[in-house]
Design brief:
This protein is mainly beta. The chain contains no helices and 11 strands. The strands form 3 sheets. The protein has a 5-stranded parallel sheet with strand order 1-4-7-9-11, with no helix packed on it. A 4-stranded parallel sheet has the order 2-5-8-10, with no helix packed on it. It has a two-stranded parallel sheet with strand order 3-6. The N and C termini lie far apart (26 Å). 31% of the residues are buried.
Amino acid sequence: SYGAGRYILKDIETINGRITFTGDAELILADNVDVTVKGGIAITNASNLVIGAQSTGRSMGRLVVTDVAPRSAGIGPAYGESCGIIRINSGYIVVTGGSGAASIFRSVVM
């Protein structure tokens, strides 16, 4: 799991397994990065998550979230849990939640 802080995704990669943030965090997609998270992104209780790209246009970073457990949000809490606010400022974001769940839970798109 990851605590509070700023995390810059710079490498093209696939992450297998759910990522958990346990404090307020900012996730920045560097230019030309292509990240796939298989399992989702969890935000615990009152923690908030901000997602953004380094730039816009053709070089804008890409985040894909897939293969999420049933009844768990693609970005947000697992079933029966809660989280703070998820704010998406920029980036090419594709999220699929688990069956019976939201893709992004408690989100604000700027």
